[in-house]
Design goal:
There is one protein chain. By secondary structure, the protein is mostly helical. It has a domain of about 70 residues. It contains five helices and no strands. The radius of gyration is 21 Å and the shape is elongated.
Length: about 110
């Protein structure tokens, strides 16, 4: 008689679902709600240009910190999944696919300096 118990996903496959792009890892960056602070900053510029620029710099600093934190969390999740002592070849293959997708999403970021 065949076993009808559903297979439990391994820690690797559970931690590494479909790869997401960098944009998906930080969706607020790409929504209309992100424009609200900029409207205030631009309005502030008329009366206080220096404070407006300081606020813009702070806003960008916050977003960069959020993005880095999100990327590090995703990196850590991928690391902890494949470093499990019971990770087999299939889990390692999936982990490699996720690393490659993550690398591609990083590579797709504009490299403007």
């Amino acid at each position: 008689m065949a076993d009808t118990t559903p297979a439990r996903p391994s820690l690797v496959s559970a931690a590494l679902t479909a790869p997401e792009s960098v944009a998906e890892s930080h969706p607020a960056r790409y929504t209309g709600s992100a424009a609200a602070p900029w409207n205030e900053i631009q309005a502030m510029f008329v009366d206080d240009p220096h404070s407006s620029i300081e606020r813009a710099a702070d806003l960008v600093d916050e977003r960069v910190d959020e993005l880095i934190q999100s990327l590090r969390a995703r990196q850590h999740s991928m690391e902890s999944a494949w470093q499990a002592s019971h990770a087999g070849t299939e889990e390692l293959r999936i982990a490699l696919q996720h690393y490659r997708a993550f690398w591609k999403s990083l590579d797709d970021l504009p490299a403007q300096t």
